[in-house]
């Protein structure tokens, strides 16, 4: 990683709320030099090239596209040619004047197969000459009046162009933009809990809640196996997930009894939590809730593991993972977090971490949430207490990304 630069990402979902792309977020460290800060545009491209070369595209993006914005200077330079043209989307900022030089550059990149996006499009946008080269047009919801939004959507729907609504923060905004014809959506609306009064959980989720209660409690292993057998599909999904994850170690379980007995309670808890997010009418492993929660859990686990070793640390790793995974369960199930935590009968410190962000696990959850939002100014000073600096954190984050992408590849 280029010193002084942190790379985060934010999911972009389609009309079915499946993750299809990520916005790559480049942030300067508080300790970055002035020269590094001024060179953020070029540094961002160098970071991407170096990261993709050392870790591979899959580790950062999985099978998704990567959006990132560039300044006029970087857009006109030859730095972009080093990027994989079929996997990245170059965003042209709203302050880039569409003069002859920019139009010519757009034409050249378009003809070379690069994907272009026009960022923060508004009514009477002066970048109209660039539209014919763009595959995506991004509209910043807070910057456009609702009455103008529908007009923009109608005017921009042409050919293969896709409309992307960004800063979508509520379900109502998502549904309204989808009704207007937007194709893609960026923002944390999917993480906002919507409490559904009087709506019962489906049978599979009820069974998974029961399994989490059993795994985190003192129920005999035999009872856990019997609960899995109540729903044959859940057992098959568990075997599929753990066998995919165990390929590198050449571990394979043939029966649910083998998996439950060999995984142990703590490991089993992680897979049950993953199944809770993945279970749905279509078994959607591409949901932003699952990818975000799984990344939170894995990153929390890796931060704990980066410290001292030992049996107690191994136990704390699993607890950290479970706190991260369960931190979005209220948005998943449409029920208050306090109610769900009570039903799961979690330990007091895990409950405090989830509900109040208190205690060591709660502090770690807050840290990872700030990392998730690429809020370097909020999290950088807290890394030292975990024995990390920005570069070490970035390595752990990439490891977490890679783990989540491996999980998604287990989808049938």
Notes on the protein architecture:
The chain is of the alpha/beta class. The protein is 53% helix and 11% strand. It has helices at residues 34-38, 40-55, 57-61, 72-76, 100-111, 146-156, 171-180, 203-216, 221-229, 232-245, 256-278, 288-305, 311-326, 329-333, 337-344, 348-356, 359-372, 376-379, 390-408; strands spanning 5-13, 19-28, 65-70, 88-92, 115-118, 136-140, 162-166, 184-186. The protein has an 8-stranded mixed β-barrel with strand order 1-2-3-4-5-6-7-8, surrounded by 5 helices. The longest helix is centred in the middle third of the chain and has 23 residues, at 256-278. The radius of gyration is 23 Å and the shape is globular. The model has no long low-confidence stretch (mean pLDDT 85).
